[in-house]
Specification:
Mean pLDDT: 86
Structural class: mainly beta
Strand content: 35-45%
Low-confidence stretches: 1-46, 58-87
Number of strands: 49
Helix content: under 10%
Strand order of the largest sheet: 1-2-4-7-11-15-19-23-27-31-35-39-43-47
Oligomer: single chain
Largest sheet: 14 strands, parallel
Length: 463
C-alpha cells in the first residue's frame, strides 16, 4: 500500500536497539542472503508494503540497471511504446515503486543488493522514518549500484529519541545515486553523520539536500573515502566535532552547482575539509560556514584542490576565515573570497600554509577581516596572484591586504591591491624579511590607496 502525505511514527513501545528489533526488521535483514526469494518464503509475516516490494522484484527476473546521474525518474508507470510515440521524448526507464514505509525501503534495498542493483522510486510527500540501526546505519549498507529516486518532499530521516546511527553507508562495490531526496537527522559516534562512503564506494547526489546531521568525528554531512559527486545539491547545517562540518574527503570529491552552507566543525573545514585527497569545486557557493579553529569555509590539506567559478563568502573561524591550503597544491580561478572573518587570528580571507603551492587567477579577494595579520591573505609559502583584485580587506595588525611571512614567496601579475587597511603598518602588503615579494609592475600590478601605507619591505612599492 502506498501511504503518502504523512510521516510513519514508530510503533508504540517499539524499542530501538539491535537486540530488541521488531520481527519485521529481522525479516528485512534476513533478505540479504536470499537472492530471488519471495518475501513470503522467509517464514515471518511481512508488512503489506514490504510484500508488495517482494512481488515487484520477484515477478520480473530482469536486473534493472541503475539510472545515470542525470536521470530524473521519480516514479510512475512505464508508458506503453507504440507508433504514436515516434518523434516524442522516450519514456523514462522503469524502476520499482517503494511505498511510504521504512520497512518497505529496507526490504527493497536488501533485495537490490542481493540482485546486483536496482532503481527504486520512493514516494513523494513522504518521510521514511528509521527507528533502529542495521549495523551502523538506518538503511542496509549499499554494496551494488542502486538509485534512489525521490520526488517532491521525499525525506529519509532518523526518528527522534532513538539510538544514534547515520542514514546510509556505501561500501566497496556500492554505487549510490540520490535524486531529489533529503537526508537528515543522522547522528553517529564516528565519521559521516548523514552518509559514509568507504574506500571503493561511490556516491552521487542530484538535486538533493543533506542537512542537520551530526558526526562525533569527521564529516557531519558526508564523509567520503571513495568517490563522491555533489551536483545541484545542498549540504547545510551539518556538524562535525573534528573536521569537515559539511563534508570530509580523503578520496575524490567533486562539487558542482551546489551550496555548502551553514555547517559547523570543531576543528578545521567548517564547510569542506579535504585531507590527502582530490577536491574539485565548480560553480558553487561555500557560505556562512563556521570552524571553531581554522578554515571556516574550506581547507585543502595535502593532495590537490581546484576551485573555479565559486563564491566563498561570510565564513568564520578563529583563524583563516575563508579558505586554507596546506601541504599540497591549490588552484583558484574566477573565485570570489569575500566577507570572511578570522575572529582572533590571522588570514581573514585566505591562508597559504607551509609546503604549499597556490595559484589565484581572475579572482577577487575583498572585504575580509582578520583580528591579527593578513586581512585578505596570509602567505607562508609560494603564492601567485594573476589578474586578481585584493580590495577593502582589514587587518588588526599588519598586512591589511596581504601579509607575506619570512618564509613566503609572493608574485603578483596584473593584480590590484587597493583600499586595504592595517591597524599598524603594511596597509596594502607587509613583507616579513627575508620573505620575497615580486610585484611585476610591468604587467600592470598596482598597490595604491591603502592605509596607513601601501607597503612595508616591498621593493618597487611606493609608500
Amino acid at each position: 500500500m502506498n501511504q503518502q502525505d504523512h510521516t510513519h511514527e514508530p510503533e508504540p513501545g517499539r524499542p530501538g536497539g539491535h537486540e530488541t528489533r521488531s520481527p519485521r526488521r529481522w525479516w528485512a535483514i534476513g533478505l540479504a542472503g536470499a537472492t530471488g526469494l519471495a518475501l513470503t518464503t522467509v517464514g515471518v509475516a511481512a508488512t503489506p508494503a514490504a510484500e508488495a516490494i517482494g512481488r515487484a522484484l520477484t515477478t520480473d527476473n530482469r536486473t534493472v540497471k541503475p539510472q545515470p546521474p542525470n536521470s530524473d525518474n521519480r516514479g510512475g508507470e512505464q508508458g506503453q511504446h507504440d507508433d504514436r510515440s515516434k518523434g516524442k521524448k522516450e519514456s523514462k526507464p522503469p524502476g520499482t515503486p517503494v511505498p511510504c514505509d521504512a520497512d518497505a525501503l529496507i526490504a527493497a534495498i536488501t533485495l537490490a543488493n542481493a540482485r546486483g542493483g536496482a532503481t527504486l522510486n520512493l514516494a513523494s510527500k513522504c518521510t521514511y522514518l528509521l527507528t533502529a540501526p542495521i549495523d551502523d546505519a538506518g538503511l542496509p549498507d549499499i554494496t551494488t549500484p542502486i538509485t534512489l529516486n525521490g520526488g517532491k518532499h521525499t525525506t529519509i530521516t532518523r526518528a527522534a529519541a532513538v539510538e544514534q546511527f547515520r542514514i546510509l553507508t556505501v561500501n566497496t562495490g556500492g554505487d549510490l545515486t540520490l535524486n531529489h531526496l533529503t537526508i537528515t537527522g543522522g547522528q553517529t559516534d564516528s565519521d559521516g553523520g548523514g552518509i559514509l562512503v568507504n574506500t571503493g564506494g561511490a556516491l552521487t547526489t542530484n538535486h538533493s539536500t543533506i542537512t542537520r546531521n551530526i558526526a562525533a568525528t569527521a564529516g557531519g554531512g558526508v564523509a567520503n573515502n571513495g568517490t563522491t559527486t555533489v551536483t545541484h545539491s545542498t549540504v547545510s547545517r551539518n556538524t562535525a566535532s573534528t573536521t569537515g562540518g559539511g563534508s570530509w574527503n580523503t578520496g575524490l570529491l567533486t562539487v558542482t552547482k551546489s551550496d555548502i552552507t551553514a555547517n559547523l566543525s570543531g576543528a578545521s573545514g567548517g564547510g569542506i575539509q579535504s585531507t590527502n585527497g582530490t577536491l574539485l569545486v565548480d560553480h558553487s557557493r561555500i557560505t556562512a560556514n563556521q570552524s571553531q579553529t581554522g578554515a571556516g569555509g574550506l581547507e585543502s590539506f595535502g593532495g590537490t584542490g581546484t576551485v573555479t567559478n565559486t563564491k566563498i563568502t561570510n565564513n568564520t573561524a578563529t583563524a583563516a576565515g575563508g579558505i586554507t591550503t596546506s601541504d599540497g597544491q591549490l588552484t583558484l580561478r574566477k573565485v570570489l573570497i569575500a566577507n570572511n572573518t578570522a575572529t582572533t587570528g590571522l588570514a581573514g580571507g585566505m591562508n597559504v600554509n607551509p609546503n604549499t603551492t597556490a595559484v589565484v587567477e581572475d579572482s577577487t579577494i575583498k572585504n575580509n577581516t582578520a583580528a591579527a595579520n593578513g586581512g585578505g591573505i596570509f602567505n607562508f609559502d609560494s603564492l601567485v596572484l594573476r589578474n586578481t583584485k585584493v580590495v577593502g580587506n582589514q587587518s588588526g595588525n599588519q598586512g591589511g591586504g596581504i601579509y607575506n611571512s619570512f618564509t613566503g614567496s609572493l608574485s603578483l601579475f596584473n593584480t590590484q591591491v587597493v583600499k586595504n587597511i592595517a591597524v599598524t603598518e603594511g596597509g596594502g602588503i607587509f613583507n616579513a624579511v627575508p620573505g620575497v615579494v615580486n610585484l611585476n609592475l610591468a604587467t600592470g600590478t598596482v598597490v595604491i590607496r591603502n592605509r596607513p601605507d601601501n607597503c612595508v619591505n616591498v621593493p618597487e612599492c611606493v609608500g
